Amino acid sequence: MPVTDVQQDLDNLTLTITADFAAPVERIWQVYADPRQLEKVWGPPTYPATVVDHDLTPGGRVTYYMTGPEGDRHAGYWLVTTVDEPRGFSFDDGFADLDFNPRPELPVSKNAYTFTEHNGGTRATYVSTYASAEALKQVLDMGIVEGATLSINQVDGLVAS
């Protein structure tokens, strides 16, 4: 399994996930830069994603929805803040209604994804920062660790194919 570590830090309001992949940095970058590849790993296997808009540039927006086993849909968005191809990018990640309007009652996280060379492959570090301990606890209670781990662990199969 690619995910090697998960750290929840309520004092610093962060969730950090580390994963190691047997693929070069440029290949891991492509997973996030290509909306069709992103769909294969964004969301756990039982909640596959459909990427609607994909502008991975500073100021750009990515919109998507995940479809559950009962046909239920859950939408979200990224507001891209920085891009350092192929080493990583940062974005605000929020929940949305099905028209991709932000849902202010749910937390928004500031995310920094970094990809570095490690043991002939790539170490990916995914850091999500929340506005409050309550916001972090809310997403933890929603199952973010399990969902993110299942999602990230799908990258290996995609880059191997």
UniProtKB/TrEMBL annotation:
- Give start-end of the signal peptide: none
Question: What's the protein name?
Answer: Uncharacterized conserved protein YndB, AHSA1/START domain
Q: Which domain of life is it from?
A: Bacteria
- Recorded family membership: Belongs to the AHA1 family.
- Domain Activator of Hsp90 ATPase homologue 1/2-like C-terminal residues, every copy: 22-158
**What organism is this sequence from?**
Micromonospora pattaloongensis
Q: Which CDD domains match?
A: SRPBCC_CalC_Aha1-like
Q: Which InterPro entries match?
A: ASHA1/2-like_C (IPR013538), START-like_dom_sf (IPR023393)
